[in-house]
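Here is an idea for our session: we take a single protein and study its fold together. Which protein we use is up to you, so please pick one and set it down. Once you have written the record down, we can walk along the chain together:
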Amino acid sequence: MTIEKSRILYIDDDVDNLTVFTITFRQYYKVFTALSGEAALDILRTNEVQVIITDQRMPGMTGAEFLHSIIPIYPEPIRMIATGFSDIGAVIAAINEADVYRYITKPWNAQDLKVTIDGAIEMYTLRRQNQALLVHLEQYNKQLEETVTERTKALQVANEELRQFNEQLQQLDQEKNEILNIVSHDLRNPLSSILLVAETFNDEPFGKLPEGYQRFTDEVFSAARRMARLIANLLDADAIENGRVPLHLVTFDAEFVGTTVVDDYITRAAVKNITLHFQHVGATVIHADENMTYQIFENLLSNAIKYSPHGRSVWLTITDNDEFQCNIQNTPIAQPSAFVYISVRDEGPGINAEDKKRLFGKFARLTAQPTGNEESVGLGLSITKRLAESMGGHIWCESEPESGVVGSTFIVALPAAEQE
């Protein structure tokens, strides 16, 4: 690969000087020569040169005057003046005016002059690189400014959309509160009356109703009770979400809560021929809200019965057992020994990985369906999670139907009471 030689323009009104310069340096550089300033301008119009060397004493225009005159047109080349000692004063004065890189004393030494020319070429190269970098930097800054402007506009649009979205959310929240107010007063009160009337018809003092009427009365009572539970769940979820549920932390034995809830649900489980198993291991005293804990037990046990096939079993376990803690997977609980663990295990269809992502969301509709036509509005687990977390606890689910494992296990960790 041939390396292009640097281009040097040498100006002198003495032909012999031009010839000697050309012979001396043509092996290193591409040399252009001119006898006058006018001839030099002709060369500059058609050739890009890196270094211009001119004799100071020339007829019509001195070397310094020539170099000064070309600055507006050709500012890039490095400029040097060759002169005798008698012209040193004028040359030094011209250095600032003509931006002269060096002056060369005549007669010049070829080796010294080559070093000087190489230094001038290196300066030219650095200047061009700096100019290219400046151009690149200006372009980058321009692009950056355009990008910032575009991003700023996009951010303004996004902020405006967010503002409008927030306004919509506030409006929806207000409408939700109005709906809940209607549910709380305009629906719950009439439902209470319907339940009271249905219960009254079933009382002994009124005697036994004809079979057809009794069936209709039972259906009215059952439907009204389901609606009452739905309304209660809606109001509970809203109250918990907005922090309107008072928290009363006391020390009590979770075993008593478990025993009570299991006794309450034995009849309901028997309808589907489901066997309830209850065991407690180790210290089961917790520091929590007793009413919230009852609701957690009821929600988990109700769900297990609801989604279990007929003739299966459901296990409720309360323990502080270290072996049980070691079975906890992918659950970052700090100080696991500071908790009591309530687990409810069923033999239902299990919960797949996709359903796990929205398991504790409000109104979640999962793949598994109740096995006895029970009602489900998708609020129970959401409420349970908020109750557990409001008491400083945790809840998670272990289920791997993809691996052929039967059923699901819901585990709630509630703070253990401090040992005295």
